[in-house]
Design goal:
Elements: E1 5-8, E2 35-38, H1 42-60, H2 68-95
Antiparallel strand pairs: 1-2
Helix pairs in contact: 1-2
Length: 99
Amino acid sequence: MNKYARPYCKNCKLIWGRYSIGLVLKCTKCGQPLILKSFNPWPKIIGGVIIILLGLLTFLVPDIPIIWIGGLIAGGLMIYNASNQWGKIAELDEKSKIF
């Protein structure tokens, strides 16, 4: 099993914590069956770093206009969103933890 997989409702876009796997089978909001979806943050983080590096490379080429600013902003936002999403999912895991 993927350590980043979480129960997910495609209809409502709701996510349940890791400890809900096998316990919650249907969405509590709409009643649709849940699927296991991977919320791995690393592809987005690596993609953001690559975009930032490409933006910095365009900064070094004198004939290319100010494209590097967009690369830095887009890459930084990708990294921020991935870490923010993973923080929220980790918070869900803590809430669903069985004591």
